[in-house]
Design brief:
The protein is mostly helical. Helix content is 43%, strand content 7%. The longest helix is centred in the first third of the chain and has 22 residues. Pfam families: Auxin_inducible.
Length: 143
């Protein structure tokens, strides 16, 4: 059995090693223009098609809108080998989704947004942000 002093020393050693690993992640890679940056605790990082970076709370992973965006991302871009997740939308759409989720809109509004994402509102496989031929869908939320 390990005594408490030895256990504390081992824990401190592992914390130092973990901190060194985090510092290495902050350096830029030669293969990418973007810096691999750590998210705050309880968040994850995604990028939009126009290269904007968003820090999203982990609680949003349960949301059907994000699940659909992740599914579409896997279909369009595949699974990234460099660790960056790119969602198939532009920054404006992502800010709109984030504002809706922050306000905790009703299930009906969420379903309407999900429906507009899944149908694409235009023909053929297309990125949500590139639906130029279709009518824009505005989801209005009353106060």
């Amino acid at each position: 059995m390990i005594n408490s002093k030895r256990l504390i020393a081992m824990a401190k050693k592992w914390q130092r090693l973990a901190a060194l690993g985090r510092r290495r992640l902050l350096s830029t890679s030669a293969t990418t223009d973007r810096c691999v940056d750590l998210a705050d605790k309880g968040h994850f990082i995604v990028y939009t098609t126009d290269e904007r970076r968003f820090m999203i709370p982990l609680a949003y992973l349960k949301n059907n809108v994000f699940r659909e965006l992740f599914r579409m991302s896997a279909d369009l871009f595949g699974f990234p080998s460099d660790g960056h997740i790119t969602l198939p939308c532009d920054a404006g759409f992502m800010e709109y989704v984030m504002s809706l989720l922050r306000r905790r809109v009703s299930r009906d509004v969420e379903k309407a947004l999900l429906m507009s994402i899944t149908t694409g509102r235009c023909s053929g496989p297309s990125v949500v942000s590139q639906c130029h031929t279709c009518q824009p869908l505005l989801l209005l939320h009353g106060f």
